[in-house]
Specification:
With 352 residues, the protein is an all-alpha fold. It is 70% helix and 0% strand. It is globular, with a radius of gyration of 24 Å.
C-alpha cells in the first residue's frame, strides 16, 4: 500500500525540457486570425474617420469585428497554453517560442478594451484625428502589435535557415500586419494620408508656410524611419528573402492605408518603391554591407520622388523645389542612418 510518506517523497514528473517550436500550420493559423484582428482595427478606423460624428455607442458593428478578432486570437493562444500546461510544460514555455509576447498582447488588449469602454462612457466617441490620440486606442494598438507579430518572432528564433516563400510567407505577413497596425495609429503623420505639399494645405501666412513645410518634411522622415526600420530588421535576420517580399508588403500596406481617406492617387509610389527594393536585392546578391547602406538610401528616395511626381500630376504643389528636393533627400538619409543602428560598424580589436 502506498503511504503518505512515500507519496511526499516521490519526485514530481519532469516537465519537457525542450522549448516548443511552432510549425507552418500553427504560424498560418496565427496569421489568419491576426489578419481578422488588424482588419477589424482598420474597419473601426474607417468608421471613426467617416461616420464618427454619428457613432453614439461603444457597441457598434465595427467594434464587433475588432473584438471578435481579438476573441478568436485569445482563444487560440490561451487554448494552446492550457493544452501544453496539461502536457507538463512550464507555464513560461507553454506556447511556441516567439508567441510568449503574443499572450502578453492579449492581456494588454483586454485592459485597453475595458479602458476604451470606460473612456467612451466618460468622454464620448472620438472622431477624425481624435481616434489616433486616444490613450486607450494606443493601448489597444500595443496589444494588437504584440499579438500579430507572433509568427515573425517565431521564425526569427528558429535555428534553421530555410528560405523561400513556403517557409517564410507566414513571417512576412506577420511583419506586414505589425507594420500596418503601427501605420494605422500613425496615419495622421503619414504624407500618403495628409499630403502636406498639396493644395489642401496652402498656407495663409508666412508662419503657416514655414510650419506646414517643416511638418510635411517631418511626416516623410518619420514614415521613412518606420518603413526602413522594419525592412532593415528583416534583412538583418534574413539576407535572402524571397524576391517580391517588399512588393507584397508595400502593396498590401498601401491597400490598407487607402481605406482610411481614399488617397488612391498616391498608392503607386509605395507599390513601385517595393518593386525597386526587390530589384535591388535581386541584383545585389550576396548582400554586402555597402549594398544595404545604398539600398536603404535609394528605396526611400525612389518612393518620395514618385510621390511628388504623382502629387504634381493630380494636385497643385505649393512647395518650391528646395523643399521637395530636401524632403526626398532627407528620406534617403534617414534610411542610410538607420543602417548604422541595425548593421552596426564593427568595433576595433584590441591590438595591444
Amino acid at each position: 500500500m502506498t503511504t503518505i510518506a512515500s507519496r511526499l517523497s516521490a519526485a514530481p514528473a519532469a516537465a519537457p525540457a525542450r522549448l516548443l517550436v511552432s510549425d507552418l500550420r500553427f504560424d498560418w493559423i496565427s496569421v489568419a486570425l491576426s489578419a481578422w484582428l488588424v482588419g477589424g482595427a482598420y474597419l473601426d478606423g474607417w468608421a471613426h474617420n467617416h461616420i464618427g460624428s454619428r457613432l453614439e455607442s461603444f457597441f457598434t458593428p465595427w467594434h464587433a469585428v475588432l473584438y471578435s478578432g481579438f476573441l478568436v486570437c485569445a482563444i487560440f493562444l490561451f487554448g494552446t497554453h492550457a493544452r501544453n500546461l496539461a502536457r507538463g510544460y512550464h507555464w513560461r514555455h507553454a506556447v511556441p517560442s516567439g508567441y510568449e509576447q503574443s499572450l502578453l498582447g492579449v492581456i494588454v488588449f483586454a485592459l485597453g478594451g475595458v479602458g476604451d469602454l470606460l473612456w467612451h462612457t466618460l468622454f464620448g466617441i472620438e472622431a477624425s484625428v481624435e481616434v489616433l490620440l486616444s490613450p486607450t486606442h494606443h493601448l489597444l494598438v500595443i496589444g494588437i502589435a504584440l499579438v500579430v507579430s507572433g509568427a515573425w518572432r517565431a521564425v526569427w528564433h528558429r535555428r534553421d535557415d530555410v528560405g523561400g516563400w513556403r517557409a517564410l510567407l507566414p513571417m512576412i505577413l506577420s511583419a506586414l500586419l505589425f507594420w500596418s497596425i503601427i501605420t494605422f495609429i500613425m496615419q495622421g503623420w503619414s504624407p500618403f494620408v495628409y499630403p502636406g505639399a498639396g493644395q489642401q494645405f496652402v498656407p495663409r501666412s508666412n508662419l503657416e508656410r514655414d510650419t506646414f513645410q517643416l511638418m510635411g518634411t517631418a511626416q516623410i522622415v518619420l514614415m521613412s524611419a518606420l518603413q526602413m526600420g522594419i525592412v532593415l530588421l528583416m534583412l538583418w535576420r534574413w539576407r535572402r528573402l524571397p524576391v517580391g517580399t517588399f512588393t507584397l508588403m508595400f502593396t498590401l500596406n498601401a491597400l490598407l492605408m487607402v481605406t482610411q481617406h481614399y488617397e488612391f492617387r498616391l498608392m503607386p509610389a509605395l507599390i513601385l518603391g517595393g518593386v525597386a527594393a526587390d530589384l535591388l536585392l535581386a541584383l545585389w546578391r550576396p548582400l554586402r554591407v555597402w549594398h544595404i547602406r545604398a539600398f536603404a538610401f535609394v528605396v526611400p528616395v525612389v518612393i518620395y520622388a514618385l510621390y511628388f511626381v504623382l502629387l504634381a500630376r493630380t494636385d497643385t504643389i505649393w512647395w518650391k523645389m528646395h523643399s521637395i528636393g530636401g524632403s526626398i533627400f532627407a528620406a534617403g538619409i534617414t534610411g542610410l542612418l538607420l543602417t548604422h543602428l541595425v548593421f552596426q560598424p564593427s568595433l576595433p580589436t584590441d591590438s595591444r
